[in-house]
Specification:
CATH superfamily of the largest domain: Tetracycline Repressor, domain 2
Mean pLDDT: 87
Distance between the termini: 63 Å
Shape: elongated
Oligomer: single chain
Number of helices: 10
Structural class: mainly alpha
Number of strands: 0
CATH architecture of the largest domain: Orthogonal Bundle
Pfam family, one: TetR_N
Organism: Paenibacillus lacisoli
Keywords: DNA-binding
Order of helices and strands: HHHHHHHHHH
Protein name: TetR/AcrR family transcriptional regulator
Length: 211
């Protein structure tokens, strides 16, 4: 057995714990999940858990950051590489809605984490790690490039403050998508009904930003 094998097993166990935690957090509030639940779901010992995470708080934090990265990547990939900024932005916003419809549990988890992490994550190192993550995400908001492109090609208003607009769009979209995620969407008709409000927001944003 070489170092490469040990590293693969280590990564495998971590991935299994992340997957188990995510499964449990989607099924129930992370406030009611414990380390024993995660270990039993993953089929991994408690000793192995502590080789990867110092606490359940750390696992919860890692899941939060993973979901935000997944959402960002999905939205970014929704926009065509070619085309004017306006069309690319609209594609991204509609992709965002589709992500929320396909993964309402992810959006609910992000909402619950945002509401509780200040009080729930008492470990200072974890708190600072999340703050660094948020700062880096804000500095690289995935909407900034496409807004700049729209201003440059004339398809979006030239007078907008790109950074403030990106933050506003992000906050508005997440707010309405999180509200949508709190409702049950068991059937396609229900999904279409709940998508109307965020789609209305997209329409209003595009009308406001269009040149």
């Amino acid at each position: 057995m070489n170092d490469s094998w040990h590293q693969k097993m280590k990564n495998k166990h971590r991935d299994e714990l992340m997957s188990a935690g995510k499964e449990l957090f989607m099924r129930q509030s992370f406030l009611t999940v414990n380390i024993k639940d995660v270990c039993e779901t993953a089929g991994i010992s408690r000793v192995t858990f502590y080789k990867h995470f110092q606490s359940l708080d750390e696992l919860i934090l890692e899941v939060q950051m993973d979901l935000l990265r997944r959402m960002t990547a999905y939205v970014e990939q929704s926009a065509p590489i070619e085309g004017r900024g306006k069309e690319r932005l609209e594609s991204m916003l509609n992709g965002w809605i589709n992500f929320a419809l396909d993964h309402p549990g992810y959006i609910r988890f992000i909402l619950l984490f945002d509401l509780h992490y200040e009080a729930y994550i008492s470990n200072r190192d974890l708190h600072e790690r999340y703050q660094r993550f948020i700062r880096e995400e804000k500095e690289n908001v995935f909407l900034i490039d496409v807004l700049h492109a729209g201003v440059s090609d004339g398809s979006l208003q030239s007078g907008i403050n790109v950074l403030e607009t990106a933050y506003f769009i992000f906050t508005s979209m997440m707010g309405i998508l999180q509200k949508m995620s709190l409702n049950r969407m068991d059937h396609i008709e229900e999904k279409l009904e709940h998508a109307r409000m965020p789609q209305l927001l997209v329409t209003m944003l595009m009308q406001y930003l269009s040149h």
